[in-house]
From TrEMBL:
InterPro entries (alphabetical): MOT1/MOT2 (IPR031563)
Top-level division of the source organism's lineage: Bacteria
Pfam family, one: MFS_MOT1
Keyword entries, A-Z: Membrane, Transmembrane, Transmembrane helix
Keyword Transmembrane included in the entry's annotation: yes
Transmembrane segments: 41-61, 81-101, 139-156, 163-181, 284-303, 309-330, 342-370
Organism taxonomic ancestry: Bacteria, Bacillati, Cyanobacteriota, Cyanophyceae, Acaryochloridales
Molecular function GO terms recorded: molybdate ion transmembrane transporter activity
Name of the protein in question: Tll1357 protein
Annotated source species: Thermosynechococcus vestitus (strain NIES-2133 / IAM M-273 / BP-1)
Amino acid sequence: MLRERLRFSWQELSGSFGDLGTDLPLLIGVIIAAQLDSASVFTLFGVAQILTGIVYGLPMPMQPLKAMAVIVMTEKLSGPILWAGGWMVGAMMLVLTLTGILTQLARWIPQPVVRGCQLGLGLSLASIALKTYLPTGDAFGYLLGAIGFLILLLLPKERGIPAGLLVVLLGGGVAMSRVLADPEWHITIAWRFPHLQPLEPQALMPGLLILALPQLPLSIANAVIATQQTAQDLFPDRPLSIGQIGLTYSLTNLILPFFGGVPLCHGCSGLAGHYALGARTGGAVVIYGSFYLVLGLLFGSSVDTLLEVFPLSILGVILLFEAWVLMSFIKDQAPMPENWMITLLVGAIALSVPQGFLVGTLVGTTLHYLSKKMPLQLS
């Protein structure tokens, strides 16, 4: 039974890279924006991946909370506010899970609203890529971005080629060459462990209002509902409940802030990405987590150096492709005009309005049920 849940093969190794192109740019972006300790972030991210692979026995990933990451990167929020937001969203999700409200919400929030949240998130990521990352640097930076774009566009993913990893290695190689060329920079190998830290009480309310509330509807829609549906589609013989996913989501975010970790969630895009490149068991996620664990524990003292010289155009290209993947999910709503209109409206609200994901979810859900009673005339 254990071999069916955790396999370590070339196929699982290939599949383990299915989410790297999504996670690494977000982790790096949040570390830079909030000035976090990179060793703690990578170490805890690796531990979370490993435990998730063992618990679920599926290529079930943990990902940075995307709405929080976008807000932190755009608003340049501090680490204490980020950790407070992560703890608050974990506490709210735990209450929703234990009371059964989460399962009811999963039935109540309609599919076009879920897709609208994904559209809004994709548009936000694309905006960051185009405004913050891609325009930086000189002609060499644009050349790197073009090469990364072609790698992601042209390499056949169905053959298990880890295009995302190749692009990140390209950026890492450039960063390493810059370090080696400058005598003031150096890379060292030394143990660094996360340390216990308290939450700052004055950060709890900003964390709740600025980060947790905008994140919660997206987490319910994407990290819980869409992930459960994706797992059911890909692994029908290994059913997962909404409650299971909500519980691991909650516990992760109630623990990580006390050690300097980035708030995390499950994600349907990551599950699909691991599967697409060959992963079929939790072994792929264990391999993936081990990469971050080694990076954080042994090279943590040098990660900050590499991040300072890592070409931002590479991050921009990867974020742009992640945005495209998220936005592509909305195509299943196009044949239904009312659903399509709601999806586009929710996406626009999520992108442009303060607390947009929360407001968009409420507006979209209200319109959905009103349209059932009074069908909208779109002709």
